[in-house]
Amino acid sequence: MVGAMDDDIATRVYGDPLARWFVTEAYRIVDTAALIAAAGDQLVRAGIPLYRLACFQRTLHPEFVGKGYFWRRGQGVEVFDAAHGLLTDVEYLDNPLPPVFERRETIRVRLERVEPRAPILRQLKDEGATDYVALPLVFSTGHVDALSVVSDKPGGFSRADLDRMYLLQFAFARIVEVHSLRDTAANLLDAYVGRAAGLRILAGEVTRGGGQTIEAVIWYCDLRGFTLLSDSLPRDVVVALLNDYFGAMGAAVAGAHGEILKFMGDGLLAMFPVGDSSRRSEAAARAVAAVDAASEAIAALNDRRAAAGEPLARFGLALHVGEVMFGNIGASARLDFTVIGPAVNHAARLEKLCATLGRSVVLSAAFAALLPAAATTSLGRQGLKDIDEPQLVYGLADADQRRVAGLPRLR
Question: Smallest Cα–Cα separation from 244: which of 302, 165, 177, 318?
Answer without folding.
Answer: 302
